[in-house]
């Protein structure tokens, strides 16, 4: 602990801060990183006028002007933010920042308002690492708030109504106490300086209600997001919901997403907007195992409308032009759809024995008929998905003693293990359209080997080559689990995935 405080003290000295006679809620101010033009701050009543130079707050190192104080624990910081002047770079930034220390390459999280009106939660997870971002679907905000709760950061944005609403999206980043919190401005041009006004600044400790059970009974908010798989890996908020939604699929034309909520299947434009319910012919107890046929005209749904509450598989036309067709109705098992074969003739699904609780993978013709086993024991087998060429079936299984990803031939023969970390719980392999990559969800070892529960902290979305030739990399960390990415969710062009993140209602 003594060493930790010494390191913080050294970083403060290195940044050469000045301590003004009155900075209100803050203690110090100064330039961070290499800024050709020195920044400054003026306090006029309750409004902070902050001027900053510097090339950017981005990448592996930052340059900006910072007004800060030290804090620890949970915290909310909010402000109305407005740039002075009409010019300047469209990527100039003014915002609220939590930062581990004053090193130019320090770990941080902020909510930034850009010169062109874009709002994003941006973060660097580790010193010297890359910067990532979650882009809000609200621009030109009247007010923003950055929120630290436990090891997660969230943000809220006020739209035209002037009221702060959850922007959606979160990231798991563990700041060590003490950390710094304050106001930041970067010109995005090291030869210039930009000024922003921060008014109605609030620095508060949230009063959060204790949630004794974070399982299925917990009340949550949900955010439907897309994420670039390559490059910066930007996450973009499609829509934030004050209720639970689950399991997005991407339409074949890339224009819309399908998800389930309150037993219904819904369609929403990728750019956001109002959701529209899909006509599922009275089957309105749908769970999160649903997906489109290869030609995009049909959807397989897993529905529990019958009195026995067993999940059955049906096929519906997206335009409602034909009656619902029941494909699997097994009185001795719960049946959950997971995959169409690329030629559209076969469905792969998970059969859960109603009496013995066994999890096995079965196949059935899309037109109906007698099902047959594909992958059966040892252990639990789940989450099947075909490779785009139809040669292989990918799935997750406990047959190694841990929940890991496997690949078998399309008929279920010759299974090969793809992931090998015994302390991770790997679920739901989703193949990119070109068949080269797998995106999947990974839990920590605080989760039972056979479980994929909701509302967990140590949840990662991961990416790996489909042939298992390289170890997986972490795409992002979030609060999520069951419902986050259960079903196929790659965009048709293979550049993005869709998923759901969550937040407990407190």
TrEMBL record:
<protein>
    <recommendedName>
        <fullName>Biopolymer transporter TolR</fullName>
    </recommendedName>
</protein>
<comment type="similarity">
    <text>Belongs to the TolB family.</text>
</comment>
<dbReference type="InterPro" id="IPR011042">
    <property type="entry name" value="6-blade_b-propeller_TolB-like"/>
</dbReference>
<dbReference type="Pfam" id="PF07676">
    <property type="entry name" value="PD40"/>
</dbReference>
<feature type="signal peptide">
    <location>
        <begin position="1"/>
        <end position="20"/>
    </location>
</feature>
<keyword id="KW-0732">Signal</keyword>
<dbReference type="InterPro" id="IPR011659">
    <property type="entry name" value="WD40"/>
</dbReference>
């Amino acid at each position: 602990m003594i060493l930790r405080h010494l390191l913080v003290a050294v970083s403060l000295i290195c940044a050469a801060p000045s301590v003004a006679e009155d900075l209100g809620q803050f203690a110090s101010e100064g330039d961070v990183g290499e800024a050709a033009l020195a920044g400054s701050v003026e306090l006029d009543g309750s409004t902070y006028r902050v001027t900053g130079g510097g090339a950017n707050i981005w990448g592996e190192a930052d340059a900006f002007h910072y007004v800060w104080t030290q804090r620890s624990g949970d915290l909310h910081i909010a402000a109305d933010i407005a740039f002075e002047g009409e010019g300047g770079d469209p990527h100039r930034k003014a915002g609220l920042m939590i930062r581990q220390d004053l090193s130019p390459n320090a770990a941080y999280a902020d909510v930034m308002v850009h010169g062109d009106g874009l709002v994003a939660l941006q973060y660097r997870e580790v010193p010297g690492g890359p910067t990532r971002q979650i882009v809000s679907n609200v621009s030109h905000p009247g007010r923003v708030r950055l929120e630290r709760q436990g090891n997660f950061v969230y943000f809220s944005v006020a739209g035209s109504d002037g009221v702060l609403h959850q922007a959606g999206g979160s990231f798991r980043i563990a700041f060590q106490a003490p950390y710094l919190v304050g106001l930041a401005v970067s010109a995005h041009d090291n030869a210039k300086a930009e000024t922003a006004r921060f008014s109605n600044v609030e620095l508060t400790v949230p009063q959060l209600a204790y949630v004794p059970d974070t399982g299925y009974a917990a009340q949550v908010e949900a955010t439907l997001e897309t994420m670039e798989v390559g490059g910066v890996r930007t996450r973009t908020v499609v829509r934030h919901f004050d209720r639970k939604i689950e399991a997005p699929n991407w339409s074949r034309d890339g224009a819309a997403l399908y998800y389930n909520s309150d037993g219904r299947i819904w369609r929403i434009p990728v750019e956001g907007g109002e959701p529209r319910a899909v006509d599922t012919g009275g089957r309105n107890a749908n769970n999160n195992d649903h997906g489109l046929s290869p030609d995009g005209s049909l959807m397989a749904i897993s529905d529990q409308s019958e009195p026995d509450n067993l999940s059955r598989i049906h096929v519906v036309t997206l335009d409602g032009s034909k009656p619902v067709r029941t494909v699997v109705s097994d009185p001795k098992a719960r049946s959950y759809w997971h995959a169409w074969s690329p030629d559209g003739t076969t469905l792969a699904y998970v059969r859960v024995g109603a009496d013995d609780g066994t999890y096995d993978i079965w196949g059935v013709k899309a037109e109906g008929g007698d099902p047959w086993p594909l992958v059966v024991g040892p252990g639990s087998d789940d989450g099947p998905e075909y490779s785009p060429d139809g040669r292989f079936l990918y799935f997750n299984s406990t047959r190694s003693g841990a929940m890991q990803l496997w690949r078998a031939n399309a008929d279920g023969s010759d299974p090969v293990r793809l992931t090998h970390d015994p302390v991770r719980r790997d679920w739901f392999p989703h193949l990119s359209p070109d068949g080269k990559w797998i995106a999947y969800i990974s839990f920590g070892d605080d989760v039972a080997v056979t479980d994929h529960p909701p509302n967990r902290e140590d949840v990662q979305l991961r990416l790996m080559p489909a042939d298992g030739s390289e170890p997986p990399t972490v795409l992002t960390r979030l609060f999520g689990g069951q419902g986050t990415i259960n079903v196929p969710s790659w965009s048709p062009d293979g550049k993005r995935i869709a998923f759901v993140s969550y937040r407990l209602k407190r």
